[in-house]
Specification:
The complex is a heterodimer of chains A (246) and B (224). Chain A is an alpha/beta fold and 246 residues long. Chain A has a single domain, classed as P-loop containing nucleotide triphosphate hydrolases (Rossmann fold), CATH 3.40.50. Chain A has nine helices and ten strands. In chain A, helix 3 crosses helix 4 and helix 5 runs parallel beside helix 6. The mean pLDDT of chain A is 92. With 224 residues, chain B is mainly alpha-helical. Chain B folds into two domains: 69 residues; 153 residues, Orthogonal Bundle (MetI-like fold). Chain B is 79% helix and 0% strand. Chain B is built from nine helices and no strands. In chain B, helix 2 runs antiparallel to helix 7 and helix 3 crosses helix 5. The longest helix of chain B is centred in the C-terminal third of the chain and has 33 residues. The radius of gyration of chain B is 21 Å and the shape is flat. Chain B starts with 5 loop residues before the first helix and ends with a helix. In chain B, 35% of the residues are buried. The chains are: A alpha/beta (246), B mainly alpha (224). Chains A and B meet through helix 2, strand 6 and helix 3 of A and helix 6 and helix 7 of B.
């Protein structure tokens, strides 16, 4: 098994509270992995550590030829890691001072150094893919939650990241907008984009994921293909959780 | 009570008007310099840059804690006695430096507050796409903070224009200095200072109209 992304011994503490207690995870190229588990169990923290939004205390993250060690991560390492990951936030976190199109081009022009024309063409292509071809000039404040989250996903898509991270992408949405966002993520998943998604949408996780990871108490308790994990979970904690979420 | 010598006041209008450009020159140059300095000071404070942060805190405390007039005298009369490079500094330059430092201290605190008011998610989103600290400040955080801080900064600019009158104490003949000289010749102090007061008032009112326009257009852009 060849890992495209390899996480080894990841530990994150907030004060005396150990939120991640030694996470090991390997993602193969094109693998789509969903993380499930109770609230406050470190799922989002794991994603945030992979993008260095939270700084892990111990462990290693390798993405392709970039390896970052928590103990001696340089600023350049962190930027290299971030440039290989696209992050989709629960609360969209679109740049409030930029239009939908500019949200998408920002990473291309400022970070990648693309010309404005090239970035614009790419952004228009993405706007079409996310079904917002006519909203390129809209500011986030003028868009619905579903539209904002689709732009948030488009912004992450634009980076052509090795790994896309989705942190509960539909949890902040009104129910009426959840479907359109899940549809978009499903299409990205169909394109064999390597992705790690934290979600409470069990049915959705089952549909799109190659593998389900169940986390509790800062550890990976159990993982496996959806039919195995949802159908024949081995661990009592997994079964208890699945019973609770129905 | 004697009647106002309005004919004399009308005579003074073109005289004082001739000094408006100098007043505006000092205020605009000092404002631009103060904005740049204040932004830098605010960033040092927000990022808690080691050592520099402490120095900036003392700088801000000093320039907010002492009167502008005292600061101007320090720059114009005091420092040249010990700093050879400053001997022969002219009043306009000293006034611009003093106004810049004084107002930058106040403006830094406003900008700092505005930066802290920008939602954390904006920092994280910018970091997540791989922006450097400088890029995210320049492209995402400062533009949003500027909108919040704009009304307050505009107030400081208005205050700055009025404060240029203190340059007169450094021997600069600006609007206030010109009025003083005229009054000293004619002994019509009330008329002379009334004219100069009206000049300041008109300038400030004109700017206030601009300020309200600016605020309503900024308000539209960030309407939620």
């Amino acid at each position: 098994m060849s890992c495209q992304i390899e996480i080894t011994g990841l530990v994150k503490r907030f004060g005396t509270n150990t939120v991640l207690n030694g996470i090991d995870l390997c993602l193969e190229p094109g693998e789509r992995v969903a993380i499930i588990g109770p609230s406050g169990t470190g799922k989002s923290t794991l994603l945030r550590c992979l993008n260095w939004l939270d700084q892990p205390d111990q462990g290693q993250i390798r993405m392709g030829d970039v390896t970052v060690d928590a103990a001696r991560a340089s600023r350049a390492d962190i930027l290299a890691l971030r440039r290989r990951t696209g992050f989709v936030f629960q609360n969209y976190a679109l740049f409030a001072n930029k239009t939908a199109r500019a949200n998408i081009t920002e990473g291309l022009t400022t970070v990648r150094g693309w010309s404005a024309d090239r970035a614009r063409a790419r952004a228009d292509d993405i706007l079409a893919q996310i079904g917002l071809a006519d909203r390129g000039d809209s500011y986030p404040a003028a868009m619905s939650g579903g539209q904002q989250q689709r732009v948030g996903i488009g912004r992450a898509m634009a980076l052509d990241a090795d790994l896309m991270l989705f942190d509960e992408p539909t949890s902040a949405l009104d129910p009426e907008w959840v479907g359109e966002v899940l549809d978009l993520i499903r299409r990205i998943a169909d394109g064999r984009q390597t992705m790690l998604i934290v979600t409470h949408e069990m049915q959705f996780a089952r549909e799109i994921a190659d593998r389900i990871v169940f986390m509790e108490g800062g550890r990976i308790v159990e993982q496996g293909p959806p039919e195995q994990l949802f159908g024949r979970a081995q661990d009592d904690r997994t079964r208890a959780f699945l019973r609770r979420v129905g | 009570m004697r009647p106002l010598d309005t004919a004399y006041m009308w005579e003074l209008v073109p005289v004082i008007a001739g000094y408006v450009p100098l007043t505006l020159f000092m205020a605009v140059i000092a404002m631009i310099a103060a904005l740049a300095l204040a932004a830098a000071l605010a960033i040092v404070r927000v990022l808690r840059v080691p050592v520099l942060d402490r120095i900036v805190a003392v700088f801000i405390s000093f320039f907010r804690g002492t009167p502008l007039l005292v600061q101007l005298f320090l720059f114009y009369f005091g420092l040249p006695q010990v700093v050879p490079a400053m001997t022969g500094i002219d009043g306009v330059t000293a006034a611009i430096i003093g106004l810049t430092l004084h107002f930058s201290a106040y403006m830094a605190e406003s900008i700092r507050g505005a930066i802290l008011g920008v939602d954390r998610s904006q920092w994280e989103a910018a970091q997540s796409i791989g922006m450097t600290q400088g890029q995210l400040l320049r492209r995402i955080i400062l533009p949003q903070a500027a909108r919040t801080a704009a009304p307050t900064l505009m107030n400081y600019f208005i205050d700055m224009i009025k404060s240029t009158s203190l340059a007169f104490t450094l021997g600069v003949t600006e609007m206030m200095g010109a009025a003083q000289k005229e009054a000293a010749g004619s002994f019509l102090y009330l008329e002379a200072f009334l004219v100069v007061a009206l000049f300041y008032w008109v300038i400030v009112e004109t700017l206030s109209v601009g300020q309200r326009r600016l605020e309503s257009s900024l308000g539209k852009a960030v309407a939620r």
